[in-house]
Each structure stands twice: as C-alpha cells, then as structure tokens.
Specification:
10 helices; 2 domains; mainly alpha; two-stranded parallel sheet
Length: 197
C-alpha cells in the first residue's frame, strides 16, 4: 500500500472510525481495478469497540462488489467476538488456537503459582476451599494471558483476609490495561499512605 493510502487509513482510525464512506473509498482505491491477490491483516480486533468492528465488517463485506482482486483476510482476536465474525462472514475458513491445550497450560501455571505462594508463606487462607475457588476463577478468566495471571496472583497475595481474597477474585480486571490501571491506582494510594505517616 502506498504511503498516501497508509496515511489515509491511519487518519480514519485516529478519528474513531466515524467516516464509513471514507473507509470504503480507501478500500476501493486499494482494491479497485486490481486483479492480483491482496491481503488484509487485522490484529487484536477484539480491542476495537463493537460499533467500529461492525463498520469494518460492513466495509469488508462489500469488497467483492467492486473489486476483481482476490482478497485474503487474516483477523486475529480473542475468542469473544467469534459470533460477530460468524455473522459477518458466512463463508470463510477459520483457525482457532487450541483452547483446551492453552487452558491446560494456564491451569497448570495457576496451580503452580498459587501453590508456590502458599508454600513460601506469601498467601495464607483460613478456608482451604478458597484456594480451589481462586485457582478456578483465575484459570477461567485468563483469556490466554499468562502475564494477567501473574499480576492477579501477586494482587491476591496482598489481601489480608479470606473475605478480601474472595472480593478480589470476584472483581478481577478483564484485561492487561485494566490490570495496569488498578496496579497504578493502588501504588498511588499506597504512596499517599506512606507519605501521610
């Protein structure tokens, strides 16, 4: 794609993708009158707000109406938006990562992480069932993010009671940006407490 077209694309997305006509115009310019194979790569599509995803789906679905090119698209995202993709594109080839294998790896990571913290004395619970519940909640909520699990285990270890741990595991951040925001807010709170002493 030419630099001019890249700049147009960046401008469209920096302005919150409100101009669907401009996006379609750009696609026409890129794909029109071309009989070669073109590739579209969209990574992290689940991070795009839903209304903007719908606009992109709508635009992508119209490419074959004005282009003679063979268009191959690669869309990567979390499993969450699979139904949206299925509704937007009824005839496509898809490949998903092995969720059971990934889940098994993360579940092992959670087990080892929690058991290690208990062994080292960094995590203490009165109710042993809380450990099992904590492991299950962490394994189910990871979305494949090992780093997310690491941060949640570290946060759980800072809790001072079973009730605090239960509250923490039932109000987990959904993703890494939210995890970072919470960690930052906690650090700011803790530094104010230390300064106030």
């Amino acid at each position: 794609m030419s630099k001019e077209k890249e700049d147009r694309l960046l401008k469209i997305f920096k302005e919150d993708l409100t101009d669907l006509d401009e996006l379609r115009s750009l696609f026409r310019d890129v794909f029109d009158a071309s009989q070669t194979t073109k590739h579209i790569l969209i990574d992290g599509f689940d991070k795009v707000p839903r209304n903007e995803r719908e606009m992109v789906f709508s635009t992508l679905a119209t490419i074959d109406s004005f282009s003679q090119a063979t268009v191959k698209g690669f869309l990567s995202s979390r499993h969450d938006i699979r139904n949206e993709v299925d509704m937007a594109f009824t005839n496509y080839w898809k490949r998903t990562t092995s969720r059971p294998k990934l889940y098994g790896d993360i579940a092992t990571y959670v087990d080892v992480g929690i058991d290690g913290k208990v062994f080292e004395g960094e995590l203490t619970v009165g109710n042993p069932n809380l450990l099992s519940e904590t492991k299950n909640v962490l394994s189910d909520g990871t979305y494949g993010m090992f780093l997310w699990v690491f941060f949640q285990i570290e946060d759980i270890c800072t809790q001072t009671s079973d009730d605090d741990i239960a509250t923490a595991i039932h109000s987990l951040p959904r993703d890494l940006p939210e995890t970072y925001q919470r960690a930052h807010a906690k650090a700011v709170r803790n530094s104010k407490v230390a300064i106030g002493k």
